[in-house]
Known about the structure:
The protein has helices at residues 2-10, 78-94, 115-120, 124-132, 141-152, 157-163, 169-177, 182-186, 191-216, 239-246, 262-273, 335-342; strands at 16-18, 32-34, 42-43, 48-49, 66-76, 96-97, 222-226, 229-233, 249-251, 296-298, 300-301, 304-308, 312-313, 321-330. It folds into three domains: 2-63, no CATH class; 67-95 and 302-344, Alpha-Beta Plaits (2-Layer Sandwich), CATH 3.30.70; 99-299, no CATH class. Helix 6 (157-163) runs antiparallel to helix 7 and helix 9 (191-216) packs across helix 11. The protein contains twelve helices and 14 strands. The protein is globular, with a radius of gyration of 22 Å.
Amino acid sequence: xxxxxxxxxxxxxxxxxxxxxxxxxxxxxxxxxxxxxxxxxxxxxxxxxxxxxxxxxxxxxxxxxxxxxxxxxxxxxxxxxxxxxxxxxxxxxxxxxxxxxxxxxxxxxxxxxxxxxxxxxxxxxxxxxxxxxxxxxxxxxxxxxxxxxxxxxxxxxxxxxxxxxxxxxxxxxxxxxxxxxxxxxxxxxxxxxxxxxxxxxxxxxxxxxxxxxxxxxxxxxxxxxxxxxxxxxxxxxxxxxxxxxxxxxxxxxxxxxxxxxxxxxxxxxxxxxxxxxxxxxxxxxxxxxxxxxxxxxxxxxxxxxxxxxxxxxxxxxxxxxxxxxxxxxxxxxxxxxxxxxxxx
Length: 344
């Protein structure tokens, strides 16, 4: 998102079409599409953009088949490395749960709650505080400074305007003239960012649904901590359960889900703990296209195009080992989740 903002502001790009988001801290390649044509190579501190060709129509999500990864795991003891290599090849047979990674829920990485949840509850002030005044250790320094000021001086919009920038500035400008209209302030946030808030909470509920579904199968499970709780992974699977999981699709939580079955009952069970239900997953901002969209997501995925190095001497950590892994995952699946599975 930061790259897109910069291209539009500094280099005057129009609308930019992308397929997913890349991690801020990674060495990644991504295709973008825009009607703006820049033949020269754009080079910035942390990225570069170059023209590779033309397409007849804008990029859409269905154009993305998946992502190819090369990951180096370092600072390993010999037994840790051997276990990871064994688990790596085991997943070729049984796959792994297709949980959303923490990246999908980045807007809640401060661990103070989900903006999407408070939008559903129509607590617009609380939701806005999470956006404007809740610093995260992962925020860049100027964002931390801005959010820290508002956390300590909530409502001082005139002074906050001096620190605001990028997506925060239109919101603060609105609040200078409309001091208590928190709902109206949300309409000044870019649509893509609002969608990210919705997707984050939707992903959290989806993860919890898959967690509970796996528990109800009564198979051995291994919990792994992540920022929003625990994720449960299996190792071996009975054949009939493996076939069931590989063919299972779980819908994204949405009030548009009409069918009632085992999965939706589990989802309602999760939402009840949140004092919500499927039919209540609605946003009352009256912004076109902003809602909990229904779609199906595979419960389990199989990595392909797999290659693994042997245990290698780690040149960065004396006396330790490293492994280099190559693999391909379908669109929407997270390498970070795959790596968590390899550690159990």
